[in-house]
TrEMBL record:
A GO molecular-function annotation: phosphatidylinositol binding
CDD domains named in the record: BAR_SNX18, PX_SNX18, SH3_SNX18
Similarity-based family: Belongs to the sorting nexin family.
Organism: Callaeas wilsoni (North Island kokako)
Location of the protein in the cell: Cytoplasmic vesicle membrane
A biological-process GO annotation: endosomal transport
UniProt keywords, alphabetically: Cell cycle, Cell division, Cytoplasmic vesicle, Endocytosis, Membrane, Mitosis, Protein transport, SH3 domain, Transport
Gene giving rise to this polypeptide: Snx18
InterPro entries named among the record's database cross-references: AH/BAR_dom_sf, PX_dom, PX_dom_sf, SH3-like_dom_sf, SH3_domain, SNX18_PX, SNX18_SH3, Snx9_fam
Lineage: Eukaryota, Metazoa, Chordata, Craniata, Vertebrata
GO cellular component: cytoplasmic vesicle membrane; plasma membrane
Protein name according to UniProt: SNX18 protein
Amino acid sequence: MALRARALYDFRSENPGEISLREHEVLSLCSEQDIEGWLEGVNSRGDRGLFPASYVQVIRAPAAEPPPPARYANVPVGGFEPLPPPAAFKPAAQQPPPEPFPPPPAGYPFPPYGGSYQPSQGSDDDWDDDWDDSSTVADEPGALGSSYPDYEAAGGSASGRYRLSTRSEPSLGPRGAGHPPGHPHPPGGGGAAKSSATVSRNLNRFSTFVKSGGEAFVLGEASGFVKDGDKLCVVLGPRGPEWQENPYPFQCSIEDPTKQTKFKGMKSYIAYKLVPSHTGQQVHRRYKHFDWLYGRLAEKFPVISVPHLPEKQATGRFEEDFISKRRKGLAWWMDHMCSHPVLAQCDAFQHFLTCPSTDEKAWKQGKRKAEKDEMVGANFFLTISVPTGPGASLDLQEVESQVDGFKAFTKKMDESALQLNHTANEFARKQVTGFKKEYQKVGHSFKCLSQAFELDQQAFSAGLNQAIAFTAEAYDAIGDLFAEQPRQDLDPVMDLLALYQGHLANFPDIIHVQKGALTKVKESKRHVEEGKMELQKAEGIQERCNIISFATLAEINHFHKIRVRDFKSQMQHFLQQQILFFQKVTQKLEEALHKYDSV
């Protein structure tokens, strides 16, 4: 029988991941085992999340009670009438006040609420049995990276490994009070000794700051070995922090999408030919390979905007228009991947570009190695190397101001991109249907006039009849030009907007990680001022926050740099295509005009 509990008190959720309770409400528990004073369950309104264990009483079912009939197995939680209170239940007024409760621990296995990327498993390029076997050959030395030694050489000795840790100071564990805002703290907490004060953990364990590992890193809980090739360097450029440029820049074309089959024709898929410029060797990849790579990169790089892939489609996957549109979207995606100094050099991306299409064993070795990457979560931040020395430190107030300014910029850009996309889409629709129809109606009218004039058998009117008939054909052709034009100018603009809308959707999480780190710094400074924390411990928190701030500002600068490049190029292309289009229209009209010269 499902575990249930009754709320003893009202509880109002104050953080994402928590749910509100009403007194006497019956809840369904995910587990009776509380995690440091918190339980997870579903309330009568169907909301799932955390609530304090001291605010509820578990409903104990009688031992002899039979299990419910199977036909009720699918009834949703909250669909039953609340049970009458058990005999041992006391009114809320008679209950003792709830005991203090700390937040859940960092290692608690929460369900995957939003945020983290889950590779899609839809009908578009379903995963095959030959994709995921039980092989662990990725542990073999040289399974990944041997096909592109230049990239290892660029970062230094690939065999060099350095142990980095943020645990040199006492552990900054969960705060002693651990109360959500508005709830009483245990007595005696304010008189703690300086050495025992800690920076609190976020109550919302579902936040990006927590799930990305940013909180654990800032609080000094990250530890791991970092290879030279894993280091991500931030340098100071003319516009501030920047990612160190890729010493071996390259591009990669995506060409010739072809329909292929397997299992004797039972399964069909589209394969794309990729030709990286730094190898010159073509490989073929399916959409599921792109999807896997995106998932790995989105998980590994919490402060980098990994470009979104073109959307999946359940039906019409083999239609020519869809294949062409997806190829163009993947080309934009590949351009942004190759242009990013960090993503372009990532081992998983290089494996994706260089592993021969026919070597299934090598592909699975690289895939397994990428999935076992230890430099993720809190350990990822250990790989970031930032400038040191005089003039290299960041002013946190200035950083906060820059990030707030960028946040306002992304919001406005997102709104403008949505508006432009809607306008362009509507205008393209009018060109394909409305404008074409209207011009061809004009052409048809001229044609009818010409046919009427042909009833006159006088020789001197023949030239005029032919000229009017030519004019009708010109307007009919202009209608076709309008219908074909969006492919040349508006569609590329909308493809670019779609790519940037993906980037703009990434930045709230990136900013949230940086904001979370700044909050910890402010809290540690307050503890130092109150004499509750040693200055050395607070300085360690600020130093780690600086690393996240350097990375965030470097990503913001890269976004602006690539944005200027892309929109300059695309606007030039749009206007050039518009000029060519109206030149074609003008040419048609001039040809029709000249027909009247000989009348």
